[in-house]
Design goal:
The complex is a heterodimer of chains A (about 350) and B (about 130). Chain A has about 350 residues and is α+β, with helices and mostly antiparallel strands. Chain A has helices at about 5-10, 30-40, 60-70, 115-125, 150-155, 205-215, 225-235, 270-280; strands at about 15-20, 25-30, 45, 50-55, 80-85, 95-105, 105-110, 135, 140-145, 170-175, 180-185, 195-200, 225, 285-290, 300-305, 310-320, 325-330, 340-345, 350-355. In chain A, strands 10-11-12-9-3-13 form a 6-stranded mixed beta sheet, with helices on both faces. A 6-stranded antiparallel beta barrel of chain A has the order 14-17-16-15-18-19. Chain B has helices at about 30-35, 90, 110, 115-125, and strands at about 10, 15-20, 20-25, 40, 50, 55-60, 65-70, 75-80, 100-105. The chains are: A alpha+beta (about 350), B alpha+beta (about 130). Chains A and B meet through helix 7 of A and strand 4 of B.
Chain lengths: ~350, ~130
């Protein structure tokens, strides 16, 4: 099992630790509900250094990115980031990712899921026929997400970059807490606002930045947050989690990711996806909330009132902000309309649920 | 972690307190910590006579769901009514307010054969 540069900090703070994507990661500290509330109402820090980062460089870097991803990266100018996915040749999803334009037409950073680092690297390399320079900087890159309505206000004294006014999905590079070359990005996986900061793991940077953030934020109620609350926070927003809601067998159109699937350019499986769009998808990822008492979980069946299977649950939880149980899942399109009653097979019972719109909060 | 001396324990992390042939059952401090925030306790076995180690209900935490196993054979008489609206009492007071069921045990000697606090402490490495 690998450690992040912050693993000892998590253990010293008494976090409940578990293996995730080969890393020893904090699942929770003070409890999922408490951490979740801290992020929704104030601010919290997530160590997500397990995520993967690739640098793609050279005059053909953009061409490669355009061919392997579904969104249109030619729209990116320096300092902008974009959510995208890597379609496979059947129209499924190899991974979802963020693309950062460091230098237009020259240098890009791809941020991928920890569990898919090797898979993505091999996948992109397979299409790298024009000698784009590729670097896997995952092991030496630290990533902290500081999320919540008060996150940027708390961090502003640590940097000259105007993070209070950093627009959503833009970023800047500069000095942060005395460390040079920190990339600060107005992105996140919580819907609560805040930033994500990337920096190199060298010369004690990790400890320096962690300590600076908590010395400043601690007295203002800033809390460390584990992967448990990261999941409940993203689920309340209806954000997809790779391996749950999207995978090699689900298409971006089925997953509601049509907005990152641009047919204005060539990319893997474009003809398949274009055809699917024209014909209409057979199933769709929907959000639902439980009407009957019970909690939906990954892989539970979704049924109609007569008990026929119409789909399956991909994610589910008790939503801490809502005090009710919510879930996401694929259902046949005729059951996907808002307010449709569906039934979740929870152990030996069928519990009523209702299709609702994203986000849940 | 706290494992009171007057209780007996199972490897499935339930505790049992015997008074005559009536026992009160819940989950241990270790179990509630492992589960995290408990949001729903489902027990629909009142009136049923079950074997030792039978599933008598389930407990849902934010992230996980876990079955509840009966420590000894007997009949479930009552579910803690407080759990319906305040399942979090299992986290805050697992041996008190957070008890789960009361049952009539078939054979009180079965309870005495379960782990005492020292043996259970040893099991969970606390």
């Amino acid at each position: 099992m690998k450690n992040t540069p912050f693993t000892q900090k998590h253990i010293a703070l008494g976090a409940k630790m578990a293996e995730f994507a080969g890393y020893n990661m904090p699942i929770s500290y003070s409890g999922i509900n408490d951490e979740h509330a801290a992020v929704r109402t104030n601010a919290g820090v997530f160590d997500v250094s397990h995520m993967g980062e690739f640098i793609l460089k050279g005059e053909n870097a953009l061409d490669l990115i355009q061919r392997v991803t579904s969104n249109d990266a030619s729209k990116l100018t320096a300092g902008k980031a974009q959510y995208s996915c890597l379609p496979n040749e059947q129209g499924g999803i190899v991974d979802d990712l963020l693309i950062y334009c460091i230098e237009e037409n020259k240098v890009y950073m791809l941020v991928v899921n920890a569990s898919n680092i090797e898979k993505d690297w091999n996948w992109i390399s397979k299409f790298n026929t024009k000698n784009v320079e590729m670097h896997n900087i995952s092991d030496k890159t630290c990533l902290l997400a500081i999320q919540g309505p008060n996150a940027t206000k708390m961090l502003q004294p640590l940097t000259d970059i105007d993070i209070l006014n950093l627009k959503y999905y833009t970023f800047a590079k500069g000095k942060f807490a005395g460390v040079d070359n920190v990339l600060i990005s107005a992105t996140g996986y919580t819907g609560a606002g805040g930033v994500e900061i990337y920096f190199e793991d060298k010369e004690g940077n990790a400890e320096k930045i962690w300590d600076a953030i908590f010395n400043l934020g601690g007295p203002q109620g800033l809390k460390p947050i584990g992967l448990g609350a990261r999941d409940t926070l993203r689920l309340e927003m209806g954000f997809c989690l790779y391996g749950n809601d999207i995978d090699d067998t689900t298409s971006p159109l089925e997953a509601g990711l049509g907005w990152i699937t641009k047919f204005t350019k060539e990319f893997t499986a474009r003809p398949i996806l274009e055809k699917q769009k024209a014909a209409g998808v057979a199933r769709k990822l929907v959000g639902f909330e439980m009407v009957d008492k019970g909690i939906p979980r990954h892989h539970y069946d979704i049924k109609d009132a007569a008990g026929n299977k119409i789909g399956f649950v991909t994610s589910g939880t008790q939503a801490p902000s809502l005090q009710k149980a919510i879930g996401m899942g694929y259902v046949e399109v005729k059951h996907a309309a808002l307010d449709t009653e569906i039934y979740i097979g929870v152990r030996d019972k069928l519990l009523k649920a209702r299709v609702v719109k994203f986000p849940f909060v | 972690m706290n494992f009171p001396d007057n209780l007996r324990y199972t490897k499935d992390h339930e505790w049992i307190k015997l008074e005559g042939n009536i026992a009160t059952i819940g989950i241990t401090d270790f179990a509630q910590r492992e589960l995290g925030d408990i949001v729903y306790v489902e027990i629909e076995t009142v009136g049923k006579t079950l074997m030792a180690e039978a599933v008598f209900g389930t407990v849902e935490a934010v992230k996980t769901v876990s079955d509840l196993y009966l420590p000894v054979a007997g009949t479930i008489n009552e579910v803690n009514p407080a759990l319906a609206d305040s399942p979090e009492v299992v986290n805050t007071d697992p041996y008190g307010e957070g008890w789960m069921v009361k049952m009539t045990v078939n054979n009180p000697d079965e309870v005495k054969a379960l782990m005492d606090a020292a043996a259970y402490t040893n099991l969970v490495g606390a």
